[in-house]
């Protein structure tokens, strides 16, 4: 360590256990500077700790602004698993996570962010509130930020686009060789994170971080969805009953929405019922090419009266859809609105929301 009066030597201070290393990365995910080796890396947020997977416990699960999951396994150099076994362990975690959907990610994040052991800087926020605080997640001009983020997560899961990180206090040669080989032969990215801890003469602790690994293949560019592409893809991805409801609601959007909003996902297309009040624009609900309907009670609750929001959720409950009043995000199959009376109740509730925007909030 350089100081005005000269050079002060640093002495390495080994981690007492793997939990100390895990906790450091959980509290300060910004230390994982993947942008040093991957130009498309974006900031990471924690969404899970010690998650039961594959008969073991994943130390940390992180998410980035591109929707990619990043499992992190911590190991100290004295652990015999720090060579070959940890690679297989992390690959197995990745295999299990590849079966998740967006709802699994949201449920996991909700449990973690409500856990009293979660670091205070993250605790008590919703997943999308936390993402917005990273600094790069903003509502996009063409639609609602939460729906765009959900689309990114869905796309990344569908492509099995994730990063796998092994965090160690010292990189050993055999482990680095394995990771280098896997990065050259895989579509996913695996990284070694070396986190060394030192103590200065004045007692200050200093962490030295190094990242090793290659980059995964670049993601496909976002699609520009339109009516023709959306309904062609809907035919392939959704069942007949759900597709019929989506067609009906699309006509309803054209007649009643202030604007029709198109998503930019690469795998699943989305279209939203847009409402505009001055400079504010958002979607009451979104539909995707899988035949699903999504709405965010968190977004709506900031813009409409509680009474209008309660009416919408009550209409969904009357159709057998699980929609408790305290829910923040809700996704359900459009086929649940297949009956004419049910579809009518949903449309009436959407129009009530539209008319209530800006009133009684």
Radius of gyration: 23 Å
User: What is the subunit organization of this protein?
Assistant: single chain
- Identify the CATH class of the largest domain: Alpha Beta
How far is the N terminus from the C terminus? Answer: 55 Å
Return the CATH architecture of the largest domain.
Answer: 3-Layer(aba) Sandwich
Can you give the helix content as a percent range? 25-40%
Number of helices: 11
CATH topology type of the largest domain: Trna Endonuclease, Chain: A, domain 1
Task: Look at the structure and give the mean pLDDT.
Answer: 78
- What is the overall shape? elongated
> Helix- and strand-based class?
alpha+beta
DSSP strand content: 15-25%
Number of domains: 2
List unreliable stretches of 5+ residues. Answer: 136-143
Give the SSE order as H and E letters: EEEHEEEHHHHEHEEHHEEEEHHEH
Number of strands: 14
Main β-sheet, in a few words? 7 strands, mixed
What does this structure look like?
This protein starts with a strand and ends in a 5-residue tail after the last helix. The strands form three sheets. Strands 3, 4, 5, 6, 7, 8 and 9 form a seven-stranded mixed beta sheet that branches. A five-stranded antiparallel beta sheet has the order 10-11-12-13-14, sandwiched between helices. 37% of the residues lie in helices and 25% in strands. It has 361 residues and is α+β, with helices and mostly antiparallel strands. The protein has two domains: 2-98 and 160-213, Trna Endonuclease, Chain: A, domain 1 (3-Layer(aba) Sandwich); 227-355. The chain has helices at 18-27, 85-97, 102-114, 127-133, 145-158, 173-185, 227-237, 240-256, 297-301, 306-318, 340-356; strands spanning 2-3, 6-7, 11-12, 44-53, 56-64, 69-75, 163-168, 189-199, 205-213, 259-262, 270-277, 280-288, 292-296, 329-333. The chain has eleven helices and 14 strands. Helix 10 (306-318) runs antiparallel to helix 11.
């Amino acid at each position: 360590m350089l100081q005005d009066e000269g050079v002060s030597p640093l002495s390495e201070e080994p981690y007492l256990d793997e939990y100390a290393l895990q906790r450091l990365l959980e509290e300060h995910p910004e230390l994982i500077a993947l942008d040093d080796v991957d130009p498309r890396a974006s900031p990471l947020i924690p969404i899970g700790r010690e998650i039961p997977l594959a008969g073991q416990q994943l130390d940390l699960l992180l998410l980035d602004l591109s929707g990619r999951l990043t499992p992190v396994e911590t190991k100290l150099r004295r652990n015999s698993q720090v060579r070959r076994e940890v690679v297989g362990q992390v690959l197995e975690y990745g295999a299990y996570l590849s079966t998740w959907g967006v709802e699994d990610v949201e449920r996991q994040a909700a449990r973690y962010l409500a856990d009293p052991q979660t670091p205070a800087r993250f605790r008590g926020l919703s997943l999308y509130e936390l993402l917005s605080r990273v600094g790069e997640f903003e509502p996009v001009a063409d639609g609602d930020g939460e729906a765009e983020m959900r689309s990114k997560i869905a796309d990344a899961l569908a492509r099995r686009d994730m990063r796998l990180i092994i965090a160690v206090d010292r990189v050993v040669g055999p482990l680095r060789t394995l990771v280098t080989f896997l990065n050259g032969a895989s579509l996913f990215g695996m990284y070694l994170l070396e986190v060394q801890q030192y103590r200065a003469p004045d007692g200050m602790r200093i962490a030295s971080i190094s990242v090793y690994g290659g980059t995964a293949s670049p993601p496909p560019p976002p699609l520009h969805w339109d009516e023709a592409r959306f309904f062609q893809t809907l035919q392939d991805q959704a069942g007949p009953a759900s597709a019929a409801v989506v067609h009906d609601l699309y006509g309803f959007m054209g007649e009643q929405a202030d604007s029709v909003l198109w998503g930019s996902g690469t795998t699943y297309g989305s279209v939203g019922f847009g409402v505009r009040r001055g400079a504010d624009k958002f979607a009451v609900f979104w539909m995707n090419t899988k035949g699903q309907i999504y709405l965010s009670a968190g977004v709506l609750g900031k813009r409409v009266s509680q009474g209008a929001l309660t009416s919408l959720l009550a209409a969904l409950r009357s159709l057998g859809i699980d929609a408790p009043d305290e829910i923040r995000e809700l996704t359900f199959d459009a086929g649940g609105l297949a009956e004419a009376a049910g579809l009518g109740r949903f449309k009436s509730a959407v129009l009530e929301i539209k008319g209530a925007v800006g009133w009684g909030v």
